[in-house]
Amino acid sequence: MQIHTTTAATRRHDIDWLRNMAILLLFPYHAARVFDHWEPFYVKSAEQSLGLSWFISVTGYWFMPLLFFLAGASSRYALRVRTNGEYARERINRLLVPFVFGLLLIVPPQCYFALKHHQRFSGSYLEALGVFFTDFGDLSGYYGSFTPAHLWFILYLFVISLLFLWSRSVWDALSNRAFMTKKWVLLLLFVPLTAAEALPSAGGQNPFSFFLLFVAGYLYGADEKVAEWTAGIRFKCLLVLLPYVPLWAALSYFNQGADDFAPVSIVLAFMRNFALILTFAVILGYGRKLAHVHGNVLSYMNEAAFPLYILHQTVLVAIGYSVVQTDLPLSVQFVVIALSTFAASLALVEGIRRWRFTRWMFGMKRGKRAAR
């Protein structure tokens, strides 16, 4: 297997489809977080669901890593037609600017509803802002403290993109080494990913493993030979995953209290990252069918996906705060939260995309104002 790349004119649309699908998955995923058995959340139902907890388990280990991998592949295409300086300026406009605006305007309402839900806060929104900008004790923010919330992804992607750009010559040289053409190199990616998890992380999100995933996406994600190879092994990997992931999830559930560096935790980390690589092979392999599928839906989602990501969690927390106080069955609450969040977020995006300033705020290209 040799590393081959295509021209910018033949960019594969499957990369865009998969990124957009992963972002849409966030709506049911974060709606499920309101009802799962795992970590705290900004709003948490008193009634919890084993089924939604399993949904979190079988999706949570791969979809954010997939976004970093696809971001690396997209950067491969971008850097074929942009200079390093143009790419850096684009990263500032597409990532840093919306992160700053999001941190100041979009995230704080999550603190407000977390305070009301978990601590019976009865103060005003301005008083909640005072808490948000002064309490740095818990960066998860689940109980109302300062947090980047879901925008950690945008911050990480910005920093990783610039670090990658600074070291790009190293990775370009590495891609020409003979051993990098071997199939087992990509399969063994789970080993350095697991080793990277031993390094320091902020708020439970490890920047070193995400950097490796970004680099892997740059090296392999836009490679036609890799795409053909994953298409050939996708079904075999799926057959392995069907018993493997439930086994890993069950073992993780029964060993939740183990120390981070206990032998069982290390084994489970290797198991999770091996499942991640197999899942990548399945997703990229079946996603290959979309490589040449284009149309209005993809064009719209390519523009809307990023502001949808920025908006969705704040909208979800606000809706979830009210819904969990109703007497509706849990399954109905989940559906109402997920669908209402999607509809409200989409409506907000429609407003945002019509104005040049709001487009800039949310990292969209500053084209002409849409007709109203």
Topology:
Blueprint: H1 13-33, H2 50-60, H3 63-81, H4 84-106, H5 108-119, H6 125-132, H7 152-166, H8 168-175, H9 183-187, H10 190-196, H11 207-221, H12 224-254, H13 263-287, H14 296-323, H15 330-352, H16 356-361
Helix pairs in contact: 1-3, 1-14, 1-15, 3-11, 4-7, 5-6, 5-14, 7-11, 10-11, 10-13, 12-13, 14-15
Rg over CA atoms: 21 Å
- Please identify the structural class as seen in this structure: mainly alpha
Q: Which H/E pattern describes the elements?
A: HHHHHHHHHHHHHHHH
Mean pLDDT across every amino acid position: 90
Shape: globular
* Biggest beta sheet summary: none
Strand content: under 5%
- List segments where confidence is low: pLDDT < 50 over at least 5 consecutive residues: 1-9, 368-372
How far the N terminus sits from the C terminus, by CA atoms, comes to 51 Å
The helix content is: 55-70%
Tally of separate helices: 16
Structurally, the number of domains stands at 1
Number of strands: 0
Model description:
With 372 residues, the chain is mostly helical. The chain has one domain (8-107, 148-361). The chain contains 16 helices and no strands. α1 runs antiparallel to α3 and α1 (13-33) crosses α15 (330-352).
